[in-house]
Amino acid sequence: MTTLITGATGFVGSAVLRRLVEAGHTVRAMVRPSSDRSNLSGVKCEIVVGDLNDPASLRAAVRGCEAIFHVAADYRLWVPDPDALNKVNIDGSVALFRAAADAGATRMIYTSSVATLGLHADGTPADEETPSGLGDMVGEYKRSKFRAEEAVRKLVAEDNLPIVIVNPSAPIGPRDIKPTPTGKMVLDAAAGRMPAFVDTGLNVAHVDDVADGHMRAFNRGAVGERYILGGANLSLREILAVVAAYVERTPPRIQLPHGLIIPIAHIAEAVARVAGSEPIVTVDGVRMAKKKMYFTCAKAERELGYTARPPLGAIHDAVDWFRAEGYF
Predict the structure, then answer these.
(1) Which residue has the higher pLDDT, 150 or 122?
(2) Alpha-carbon span 150 to 77, nearest angstrom
């Protein structure tokens, strides 16, 4: 089976790529001209150059493919121009799936995010049916992913496209080259660059388990359904304690109130606009941290046979990879 994957040079995509190859797929990886291809090293796959903003390149990329794994996304919590996020995450996703359908693809996986899901005010784990609306989305990234998932569900309902949706939580592990916001948190903690923290929480999962969940969704998922691919719900204090114990550091003990960080975030964003770089902390990031992003994977476990390893191994693997690659 010839399978196209987008986002294969990225963190989650590179893990999905490896699972596809292991499963015997003939894999075609679509990469942007400017992409860092180090995550493709040593993996047997065809590489084609394409861009979600270039419809002609999408038509060329999907030609002859029976399956599509759309993992790519513009994942930035702060952008000077929100339209850039929307063009990639919404318009690009729709264009890719339409091109794939026209090319005869019969099975498609869309990588969404738990960012599109609702949360419970009391911090109890949310699931795929927890209500959410656009007004609940904090920040341009979350809003773009929410609209993108809506657009994908519309393709299923109105155009009968064979798309299964997966919603990864906060994956950690090897090959986080950028790194992602969660990976940077682990890296900074391991390197002793996080002297304080806020009261928040995440659902963390090993990136390889998330990749396995993609394959299970491909093999067993119901068209139009969505499945949370996550792991364990941990407070930020607990995550930092695990990292500190592993690298033999003292964990940070200063808990900062959210209200104290908001002014700092405003200043950081103002500096970033002038400097043309990403801020060290964002207003949206602080606002998101006010809620614990806890989820349950019960549906994926029940319907897909999904399992997640204990978080200790995922955190240790992330630290080991950052250390081996010289990120400290």
Answers:
(1) 150
(2) 20
Could you tell me if residue 62 is inside a domain? yes
Q: Which residues, 6+ apart, have CB-to-CB distance to 31 below 8 Å?
A: 8, 9, 37, 40, 47, 48, 49, 50
User: Is the pLDDT score of 288 beyond 70?
Assistant: no
Question: Per the domain annotation, does 132 fall within a domain?
Answer: yes
Flag whether pLDDT at 257 surpasses 80: no
Give the residue from 254, 284, 255, 258 showing the smallest Cα distance to 272. 284
Residue 328, pLDDT score: 82
Question: Can you tell me the distance from the alpha carbon of 89 to that of 141, in angstroms, rounded to the nearest whole number?
Answer: 9
| Position 103 confidence tier, pLDDT thresholds 50, 70, 90 | very high
**3-state DSSP assignment of residue 16:** helix
Q: The tokens of 291 are what?
A: 């809620």
CA distance 17 to 45: 9
Residue 169 belongs to domain with CATH number: 3.40.50.720
Residue 24's domain comprises: 2-174+205-231+294-309
- Measure the N-to-C terminal CA separation of the chain; round to a whole number of Å: 41
314 belongs to a structural domain: no
Q: Is the pTM of this model over 0.90?
A: yes
Residue 98 domain-assigned?
yes
- Residue closest to 166 by CA, chosen among 119, 222, 125: 222
The Cα–Cα gap between 298 and 128 comes to 10
Total number of domains constituting the chain:
1
Altogether, the residues listed in the chain come to a count of: 328
Mean of per-residue pLDDT scores for the chain: 91
Radius of gyration from C-alpha coordinates of the chain: 19
Segment among 18-27, 134-143, 177-186 with least mean pLDDT:
134-143
Distance CA 117, CA 148 (A): 13
- Residue 208: both structure tokens together: 């390889």
C-alpha–C-alpha distance, residues 172 and 113, integer Å: 14
Identify the sign of the CA torsion 262, 268, 274, 276.
negative
d(CA 100, CA 62): 6
